Automatic annotation (TrEMBL):
Protein name: Squalene synthase HpnC
InterPro entries to which the protein is assigned, alphabetical: HSQ_synthase_HpnC, Isoprenoid_synthase_dom_sf, Squ/phyt_synthse, Trans_IPPS_bact-type, Trans_IPPS_HH
One Pfam entry name: SQS_PSY
The organism's place on the tree of life at top rank: Bacteria
Organism of derivation: Pandoraea anhela
């Protein structure tokens, strides 16, 4: 499948960020490598579904060895490195297994009937990232974890809303079917890129929900000290900026996929810095 050395684009990970303390960049890189390559097994290349499931099962088998304190396979150096990070930082193996569970689900599941189903997915596909990061920094209190879950799942939802057209080409629709029915939008409408009042009403609802979730979790960034806290402030404002950009194109993500450019990056950093220095999270 993909090389274990491949590190490219796992969306929700602050890998190698200059805002991360230097001593944390190596362990975060190892964890990122695990998440990215596992995601690629599920989603990249031309493997069959059976091959994808088998690839992820092999990853889970290595995690089981780590959990049992057994040696990992000598031909899989990624897991030897991951075992060292987990042992050194006293991390739980469960969030890593949760990620694999979500990636495995992505192979077969192309629609979500309800938001509850979608949220169950993001609890495993997005929330583990924040939980791992908090555990690395020894900040994983129940209150912090709850806020982190809101931030991570909000980021995932924002990614879904900006990528409706991209996901459609992969035969995927992450918009909950119950929400689509409520606003009179069908799969056929998405396929036809039908941009009308129904679509705008649906996307306005989803954008508002994601923003409220992000703002609910945002106080975490002010509780986290130092450069990691600044990183979180920028993450929060990056997600909010994408939502602003979706609104700016009047929800026409079919023809205008929002992406953060250089100027947006500067704006996000300055807003994140102001948030960190001011000690107050953004308001809706």
């Amino acid at each position: 499948m993909t090389s274990e050395a491949k590190i490219e684009h796992y969306e929700n990970f602050p890998v190698a960020s200059v805002l991360l303390p230097r001593e944390m960049r190596a362990p975060v890189g190892v964890i990122y490598n695990f998440a990215r390559t596992a995601d690629d097994i599920a989603d990249e290349g031309d493997a069959t579904n059976a091959e994808r499931h088998a690839g992820l099962a092999a990853y889970q088998a290595e995690l089981d060895k780590i959990a049992a304190g057994a040696p990992t396979s000598p031909d899989k150096p990624l897991f030897a490195a991951l075992a060292r990070v987990i042992a050194e930082h006293k991390l739980s193996v469960q969030p890593f297994s949760d990620l694999l569970s979500a990636f495995d689900q992505d192979i077969e599941t192309k629609r979500y009937a309800t938001f509850a189903e979608l949220r169950d997915y993001t609890r495993r596909s997005a929330d583990p990232v924040g939980r791992i990061m908090l555990a690395l920094f020894k900040l994983d209190t129940p209150e912090n974890v709850a806020c982190s879950d809101d931030i991570c799942s909000a980021l995932q939802l924002i990614n879904f809303w900006q990528d409706v057209e991209v996901d459609w080409r992969k035969v995927r629709v992450y918009l909950p079917q119950e929400d689509m029915a409520r606003f009179g939008v069908t799969d056929a409408d998405i396929g036809a890129q039908k941009y009308d009042d129904n679509w705008r009403a649906l996307m306005r609802y989803e954008v508002d929900f994601a923003r409220k979730m992000m703002l609910r979790g945002a106080p975490l960034a002010n509780r986290v000290p130092g450069r990691f806290g600044l990183e979180l402030c920028c993450v929060v404002h990056g997600g909010l900026r994408i939502l602003d950009m979706i609104e700016a194109v009047d929800y026409d993500v079919f023809r205008h996929r929002p992406q953060l450019g250089k100027r947006d990056g500067i704006r996000v950093f300055l807003r994140g810095l102001c948030m960190k220095l001011g000690g107050k999270p953004p308001r809706g």
